[in-house]
Amino acid sequence: MEITSNLIETIRAEIETFNRAERRVAEAILSDLAGATRLSIRELASRAEVSEPTIVRFSRRLGCDGFSSLKLKLAQDYALGRLYFDTSPEGSEPSDVVEQVYRSANRALASARDQFVMETYEQAALLINNASRVFCFGVGGSSANLAAEAEDRLFRLDVPVSSTADPYKQRMMAAISGPGDVFLMFSTTGKPQSLIDSAEVARKLKADVIAVTRPQTPLGTLANVHLSLSIADDEVYYNLPNPVRYAQLLVLDCLAMMIAASRSDVAARKLRRIRMALVSLHGPTQAQPIGD
Predict the structure, then answer these.
(1) CATH class of 7-85
(2) Residue 163: beta bridge partners?
(3) What string of DSSP letters covers 150-198?
(4) What is the pTM for the complete model shown?
(5) Residue, of 100 and 40, whose pLDDT is higher
(6) Fold category of 106-282 in CATH
(7) What is the pLDDT of residues 111-124, one digit of tens each?
(8) For 202, phi and psi rounded to 5 degrees?
């Protein structure tokens, strides 16, 4: 896959090769990226103290047909990359970072809790509890990690479970599914094609699909149990983790506890065996989470 060059990065990389007039144009753009996308050619020329033909030549040097083309490309690149061009206004001191992440996590958890529909969660927990097999899928960052975490949580409760973030393996697992099988899929956007394709195959083969994703998305629409999760995107700065991960973890924790409660007798016996097995590795584990 070809990665398209970024105009802003190109200007920064080549600024030392520009002549004096071109450099003034580059500096005027880089000093206010957001503002530069809204300037007319006359306004940019005035700000850079150059002529309008200089702006046109500058645009063509960067591979654009003219100023309009340059401004459009600049706006597109800024919209896609603004997280990485801006810096946080709240500071980068350790105390500031801790406070930002803490507030972001709290907002995500509160928002997720407000979206809970208990009947839907009960339905999802019942399906997993009674499943012949459970397949946990996710792709990308937090969703792939949550799928692996779901496997880690559920096998301790004696649920027959496996997980993968491999698109090929997801399709293959869907192809061998059938009635009684359950797919638990995590997705921030609800748009990854491998998840959509796998959900389609699983549903055709009469398996159940539980989707933890945004409302009105392709994956959410395909699922027969949709745990709707939409967290406001406050990842405004590149150094602030996406808060969706906290909300997804809350969803998983609630599901795991519901399942544990519904199979408490069996789960308790298996958890005791796990703890006894771990004693031989590093002594008593009463104060530690099982398996951690």
Answers:
(1) mainly alpha
(2) 136
(3) HHHHHHTTT--EEEE--HHHHHHHHHT--TTEEEEEE-SSS--HHHHHH
(4) 0.70
(5) 40
(6) Rossmann fold (3.40.50)
(7) 999 999 999 999 99
(8) -60, -45
